[in-house]
Amino acid sequence: MSIGRPAAAHLLRRAAYGGTVNQIRDFSRLTREEAVDQLLDTSSTPAVPGWGRFSNLQNWQAQEAMIEWWVDRMITAPPSIEEKLTFFWHDHFATGRDKVGESELMWEQHVLLRNMGQGSFRQLLEGVSLGSAMLIYLDNETNVAGAEQENFARELMELHTVGNGRFTEDDVIAMARAWTGHNTVGRTRENNWQYDPSYIFRTLEHDHGPKTLFGITKRWNALQTLDELCYGVKATATSDYIARKMFQFFVHANPDQATVDTLAANWRANNLNILSLVREVLLLDEFWAESTHYALVKTPVEFMVDVLRRCGMTSSDDSVRWRMEQMGMVLFDPPTVAGWGRNSYWLSTATAWGKSRWINGLKWGSDDRNILQNLEGMPIEDAVDEVVGFFGIYGASTKSRDQIRELIEITTEERPWALKYEPFAVGMFMPEVQCA
Q1: Are the CB atoms for 267 and 236 separated by under 8 Å?
Q2: Is the pTM of this model over 0.85?
């Protein structure tokens, strides 16, 4: 049975960045399995540019250009899971240019997340952990035997795999020792003391002695710890942590433990293949339940991308880097090692103020773009439908419709000239537009 338009719009909000009218129509004709599998098929996604696209720019300009490229990609790419999964891993494996320093290293990590973020979680974990951006951001570039740096060791477990409370301080110490010698080249006489961020393993700086990690004593090295986290005594904890986080990203914030247990067990059975976990999450009855629709609060990036697409705009039409900063979410520069928060994290006066300023700027150009310019003289319920429909909302709440109706009635009576932009601006603050 086909899923219909409300469910298609829901799927495209969650697993992509919203859908156009035509995309929603096309997906509405598919079954659940067909719709999900079409989103998971990334074979026709456009190519990703190499660093050469940004290499002639100053460092801060390169980051801005990278943000603009990614926003445009989110806006224009055909619906597929690639963009949302890259966004998920960008937050999960948080690193920031402010500390990493070179935008090129951030771009290398972005491409890695994009290329490896749909396959083996074990391989992705290794690629990120040994990448220059992570080595620098979490200080493993200076982790050497006798002067262990525990920052990466702790976050590898707390943020990237098993989660808080599932390891001990002794595990942190042992993990740090296992990762000694996995550094960056740094400044050496051979490179004329110019900083080289490339990964290098220095066996003379590695602690080759026995270490007790997770209750197991042996001569642990870095890659063995990743195997243990993914396939060994911590496999259940890691799969539970990632399955829960994936559910919360796509479905809602409060999964029951039985659902998480099933997702995690099946994921382990599929050798931690990422797309297999995503597919199972998206096919859950709970994902499709009407009570789940609009259960997540959009991040500023998700909100901006959806609105820009509906307005026929791209990054060149607005200063997206500056707007993101006002809303508290600048890509490639998360606020902490834990990335950004979700849902209620974005329900703050500061975020609302940033959105308001952006929306206020957009509304003045709505007539130039012929956005909702035909409301004057239209029957009131048709006008409400027009506003709600512009934002791709199916099943808008009675309260949302009443607020739009009241606005149109008052505006028609008191300042009809404002019909050209006020419904557009107020429509962006409907809960259904702010939520996914």
Answers
A1: no
A2: yes
